[in-house]
Amino acid sequence: MAVTQPTALQRAEELAATMPTLLVAAERVASTVAQGVHGRRRIGQGDTFWQFRQYQPGDTTQRIDWRQSAKSQRVFIREHEWEAAQSIWLWRDASASMHYASDRNLPEKGDRAELLLLALASLLIRSGEHVAFMGEGYPPSNGRAVLNRMAASLLHGGTATANAPPPEPLPRDAQIVLFSDFLGPSEEIETSVKGYAARGVAGHLLQILDPAEEAFPFSGRIRFEGLEEEGDALINRTERVRDQYRHRLAGLRANLTALARRHDWTFSVHHTDRPASSALLALYGALARVAV
């Protein structure tokens, strides 16, 4: 019997129905954290011009530069240095390894990463910060429209599925938050961190793992399937390699911790069986400490 493929309209309707769910969940997590934190300390607005950028929905009309806008058919916003310094860029790993959950009652790592990214964006926007989704092509901005656009981008697949963020000319003193399992090639993330740190960008690494990836509770004969073309591995007595696996994971984490420390970044770990709000609160606190 032939299987009828969904039309483009049906796929679009399914996507539209999913977006409010993600937004509601993210806003709920952000609201939980917002009740227990104070606003971020902010530097003054200053008068030094930084750049013009095109007006976006959600921007106030008071920030429009009418003289610059009169030179073309587009409307421009005038931004000052403090807005560049307070910009916060968000990226999540969308590689195949993030599509893993050891239990049907647990979210996939990628789903948790997207929830945390959107919740952090919501929390920062409430504080008046300017945020951007790396690779999306839009400058940092503020307002509900930014959150809606980021959610839509995530649900459409977001940016490229690399193990590390793309190189972008972020302004000095910006901040960047990376959500990943960091199980890909270590040299890729190391190169990325070094590059951004050299530009004066402060960063925060959040490693998201399934609890089974931490504990390795498997036993007996199991075939493990590689999610990123590593091939399969058949292990007859998985309990015999448990200590070796944990040792390698501890080594990876120690390297990530050292990498972050060398560049004055922060590193933390979140497991998908833990509340998302706990990870969000820690990230928000790390961002605030850098901004002070």
In short:
With 292 residues, the chain is of the alpha/beta class.
What does it look like?
- The chain is of the alpha/beta class.
- It has one domain: Rossmann fold (3-Layer(aba) Sandwich).
- It has nine helices and nine strands.
- Strands 4-3-5-6-9 form a five-stranded parallel beta sheet, with helices on both faces.
- Helix 6 (186-198) links the parallel strand 5 and strand 6 (202-209).
- The longest helix has 27 residues, at 8-34.
- The radius of gyration is 21 Å and the shape is elongated.
- The chain starts with 7 loop residues before the first helix and ends with a helix.
- The model is unreliable at 39-47 and 81-85 (pLDDT under 50).
